[in-house]
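Input set for joint prediction.
Command: fold jointly, output tokens.
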Amino acid sequence: MSALFLLIGISLIVATAFLLAFVWSVKKGQYEDDYTPAIRILLDDEPGEEQQTNKQNN
Amino acid sequence: MNQQPKIHTETLCYHCGEPCRESTITAHNHEFCCEGCKLVYEILSENNLTNYYRLNACPAPSARERRYGERYDYLEDDKVRQKLISYTDGKTAQVTFFIPHIHCSSCIWLLEHLYKLDKGVKRSTVNFLRREVSLVFDENETGLQRVAILLDKLGYAPHISLEDVEGARKTVSNRQAYYKLGVAFFCFGNIMLLSFPEYFGLDTMRGEGFRNLFGYLNILLSLPVLLYADTGFFKSALNGFRQGRLNMDFPISLGIVVMYGRSLYEILSGTGAGYMDTFAGLIFFMLTGRMFQDKSYQRLSFERDYKSYFPIAVTALVQGEEKSIPLSELKPGTHIRVRNEELIPADSILLRGVAAIDYSFVTGEQVPVPIQSGERIYAGGKQVGASIELEVVNEVSQSRLTQLWNESELYHSDAKDFNSIVDKVSRIFTLVVILIALSAGSWYLYQNQLPTALNAFTAVLIITCPCALALSYPFALGNSIRIFGKNRLFLKNTKVIEKISRIDRVVFDKTGTITINGGAEINYHGETLEPFDRSAILSLASQSGHPLSKMLAKHLSGASLSHVQSYVEIPGKGISGIIKNDSYSIGSAEFNGPSAHSVDESAQTRVYWSKNKEVKGYFAMKNVYREGIQDVTIGLKKRGMRLSLVSGDNDSEKLNLKGYFPNGDDLYFKQSPADKLSLVKSWQNSGDKVMMVGDGLNDAGALIQSDCGIAVSDDVNNFSPACDGILDSKSFRLLPRFMDFSRRSMHVIYASYAISLIYNCVGIWFAIQGDLSPLFAAIIMPLSTVTIILFTTLGSGWMARRSGLSL
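tokens >
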């Protein structure tokens, strides 16, 4: 059963890693603005490319 | 900018989407309404940024009516710079601008591509909800002023107010709340996992080794919860206790402490498994509830005062030379220059120039008041017309307008602190629980069973920890506040819903609240308007910035424009000019000549016009009432509210208003802001719960004083004063339904209180028998919590549908 000691230890380490990841994401400001990134991802950078696809659609 | 229904034949500007009225400029295969719009288009197309127009049609603000020449000189002032720049290492600096105009994805796209327009800008990030752009720029390549001017040129003028510079900027950071939630969840999950063997009785088979290990690990894991995550509850309970109030956090804290203490004892002494899992779970659920409640509207501010309206700098005249000085350095005796449409920052005396002051900010009256040289001008007015020179007589904070704000803030102090249902319930609840715990304990003590006595005493306190009770208010009203927001009534916090549910008198302001700002119904009387005269009057009226002229120009738009010669504007009287050899004048009756006087001066505002000194006719302008005002007044009456109207205007509209405010409602006219405030006070003193509905400029004091102040706004992102809620004018007609919904939301809370009490009774039944197993606690407490969360969320949604609001 001593394997349990090891497993509990590992599970705690993994869980702590997730907690730290969460703390890091808050610190980086990922929870400050939960709206703009959703729009930003839809904006294309290259106007040239966009123009071409528009022409094709037309 | 009022959205006018667009006529389809009109050409719309490619840049701003405004109809091109006077002159259409065709360039680069697109139509523009003015040079300004064309210019911005050219800047963007040169820099390969025309994607801006592809994301949304006509995304920009019109450049036509924009005030040019704002030079942002004050941004070079060191003190101002220091306040605005949030971080700098001498080379790279970061600044965050509030830009009210941000409204669509094109805005985000353009503002995040600023680096293409100014090489010094390293990065720009938009926060859409807060309408902010935060810029990182190289101080050697560009400057604060240059960036601000660039933004202004593109139509995204940053709003920099006195508040940004004077007050410590509030960084609304709820990062702590996220950390606490994360820590609580982490501990809760792991403790739960380690407690599973205990639930299933596996531990007994494996011997003491694991039992001890799991126990100690649980203690270790619960420490961050006790020492970090739950501190907010203790603080709040302690604060309440010091003020002699037992708030909901008191029984919570009591339960937590007892629960933790007993668990610690049980584990260390080896007598039991403790309730660490329940403890961590409760804290996690309650933190979730708090977060749910606090997630309010970041982009709306409910705490604005005059500082957010005032400019941050003014143009002072030092030995005849213009110099931009910060408002805080404005002293009595300073000479300042105020240009067209600029706000008078402090009470002053007119030295030079023709002053016509628009006091709509203070009184609601839109028609400018002419001021003679040497007369006093009060802060808060706006100059209309050419620039004027003033001598400041009072400091900014000592001026009449600012004093009104300060006074009403005093009234707003804790004296009328709102007594919520939560406070009442928690007081009774706490006392009853302590009583039960004590009597259960002493009953066993009486029978000489000390261990059972302690057991029962602590078990009662643990099981009654009013977690579910505490969660019903934030979850029910948190959901309601979201539904209100969906229907365009934005509330400051959840308590406002309870306040609204108790209202029995609704007071309306007139101008801008039940009438539409800048809108008027115009009827023409007199000789037939020939097309030629029509165009002449339009040409004349569009020269002037007077609100009546603007309305008239809007009314006549469509006629062609002609050149106006020897244009004269006499403030407060009228305007005149020569068009194609005929002299025209429009304005008040006396301005146009004695013959106009014969007409009966009745209810409306009239603008006369004359050609070659001969009065031809007049335009009668009537206020336009908001659509659905009748539904609102009748609807509120039906719900047993008393209605009143307070207006800063004269009683010329009294007859019209009588139609909207049926019998027995009080109509008050010619009320100054201070009068409005004292009227609200007198109603409150006679026991009424008053809701003030106003546009928030000249009734700011009344809004704060009332039990619930609602500011009506055409654009909720514009500035509104301190209030409890901001109502989009489009949703004005929903006001009676909002009343229903707030009352029903409270019913949901009462019902959920009943449910959680039932759970508590069941829990107490087991607890007083001294037999509270950790497994039982670990089931019943989360179960009651989840029941309450589900019930309140679904309940408030159902109530919204019953009240006729969209979800």
